[in-house]
Write a structure and sequence with these properties.
two-stranded antiparallel sheet; 19 helices; 76% helix
C-alpha cells in the first residue's frame, strides 16, 4: 500500500522510515509555502493601524477615531476596509475550489509555483497601490496565491515525508506560517514610524513569495504525483533522489504504479464516493475539524491582533509589541507539537488543545 507517496508494506517497507538530506531539504522548501500565508496574517492587521495608510485609503476610519471616547473598536466599521481585509479570503476560498483539480492535473510543485507567482503579483500591486481598486485587486491576487499554495503544500509534504515522521514534517507548514506572522509583526513595528511604512509592509510580501517560488522550481514533484501523471522516468529519478540511492527503488515504484492503476480502474468520482454511507464518518470529521477550528476565532485573533489590543486600551506601539509576543507564543507551541505529534498522535493533540482552549475561554466568576 502506498501512503504519503511511499510504499509501506511488502518488501519495501524498510525504506519508509529513512530521512535523507534530500527529503529534509525538499520538505523545508515546500513548507516555506506557509510563509506567504503567515506573512499576510501578520501584516494586514498591523497595516490597518497605521495612520498614513488609513489617511490615504480609509479616511472615514480616522474621522471616527478622532471622535471616539472610550472604545475605538467601532471606528473600524467601514465597508471599504472590510472589503480590503476579506477580499483575500474570498479569493482564497474560490481558488481552493479548483486548486485540488489543478493539483492533480498539473502536479503539486507546479501549483506551488503558480501560487507563488500570483502572490508576488498581488504584493507588487499592493506595495504600489494608489487607490482602493488597486489595493483590493492586489488582495484578490494574494488570495489566489494563498488558496493554491495552501492546497498543494500539505499534500506535497504528506507524500514526501517518511510515514513515521509525517506529522512532524507536516507541522513544518504551520511552523513557517508562524515564522511569517512573527516576521510581519516585527516589520510592522519598525515600519509604523515611516510615512510610507505601509508600502514597505505590503510590498515586502513579495520576498516570501520569491523564496517559495524559486525553491519550488529547484525541487522535483512527488513520486506519487509523477506516477499519477504517467511520468514514470521522472518518478524514478525523484525516488532515487529522495532515497539517496539508485538501488532498490523499483519495488517501491512498482507499488506506486499499482496504487495509481487501482485508483484509475475504479473510475469513480472521489467527491461522489465520499458521500457513500461507509465514508460518512470521515466526511463529517473532514468538515467538522477545520470548521470548528476556525469558529474558535483563532485566525481572527492573529489577523486583527494589533486592532484588538488597541481597542482595549493599548497604544499603537504597545499593540504591535503585544502582537509580536502573541506570535512568538504561537511559534513556541508549534515547536512543541512538532515533537509530540508523531509520538503521541493527532488525537492526543486535539484533546489537549481543545481542553486547554475550553478552560481558558471560560470567563471567571
Amino acid at each position: 500500500m502506498a501512503v504519503g507517496g511511499f510504499a509501506v508494506d511488502g518488501n519495501v517497507g524498510a525504506f519508509s522510515g529513512r530521512i535523507t538530506a534530500s527529503v529534509v531539504i525538499t520538505c523545508i522548501v515546500a513548507a516555506s509555502g506557509g510563509l506567504i500565508f503567515g506573512y499576510d496574517i501578520g501584516i494586514s492587521g498591523g497595516v490597518t493601524t497605521m495612520r498614513p495608510f488609513l489617511k490615504k485609503f480609509f479616511p472615514s476610519v480616522l474621522r471616527k477615531a478622532a471622535q471616539a471616547k472610550t472604545n475605538i473598536y467601532c471606528v473600524y466599521d467601514s465597508q471599504a476596509l472590510t472589503a480590503f481585509t476579506s477580499s483575500l479570503y474570498i479569493a482564497g476560498l474560490a481558488s481552493s475550489l479548483v486548486a485540488s483539480r489543478l493539483t492533480a492535473a498539473l502536479g503539486r510543485r507546479n501549483i506551488m509555483v503558480l501560487g507563488g507567482c500570483t502572490f508576488f503579483a498581488g504584493a507588487a500591486i499592493n506595495g504600489g497601490a494608489e487607490n482602493l481598486f488597486m489595493l483590493i485587486l492586489g488582495r484578490i491576487l494574494l488570495g489566489f496565491g494563498v488558496g493554491f499554495t495552501n492546497q498543494a503544500t500539505p499534500v506535497y509534504l504528506s507524500e514526501m515525508a517518511p510515514h513515521k515522521w509525517r506529522g512532524a514534517f507536516n507541522t513544518g507548514f504551520q511552523f513557517f506560517i508562524g515564522i511569517g506572522v512573527v516576521t510581519a509583526n516585527c516589520l510592522n513595528y519598525g515600519a509604523a514610524r515611516l510615512s510610507w511604512g505601509w508600502r514597505l509592509s505590503l510590498g515586502l510580501a513579495a520576498v516570501p513569495a520569491t523564496v517559495m517560488t524559486i525553491g519550488a522550481l529547484l525541487i522535483s514533484d512527488t513520486p506519487s504525483s509523477l506516477v499519477e501523471r504517467n511520468k514514470l522516468d521522472e518518478a524514478r529519478k525523484a525516488l532515487a533522489r529522495v532515497r539517496g540511492t539508485d538501488a532498490d527503488i523499483e519495488p517501491e515504484l512498482a507499488d506506486l504504479v499499482k496504487s495509481s492503476e487501482v485508483a484509475k480502474a475504479a473510475n469513480r468520482e472521489p467527491f461522489v464516493t465520499i458521500f457513500e454511507r461507509q465514508y460518512r464518518p470521515h466526511l463529517v470529521m473532514s468538515f467538522a475539524i477545520p470548521f470548528f477550528q476556525q469558529v474558535t476565532g483563532i485566525n481572527i485573533i492573529a489577523f486583527y491582533a494589533p486592532v484588538l489590543f488597541q481597542s482595549v486600551g493599548f497604544g499603537s506601539d504597545s499593540a504591535l509589541i503585544a502582537a509580536i509576543i502573541l506570535g512568538l507564543v504561537n511559534l513556541g507551541s508549534i515547536l512543541v507539537s512538532t515533537v509530540m505529534v508523531d509520538r503521541f498522535g493527532r488525537r492526543f493533540l486535539f484533546l489537549q488543545g481543545g481542553t486547554q482552549m475550553s478552560g481558558l475561554l471560560v470567563p471567571p466568576q
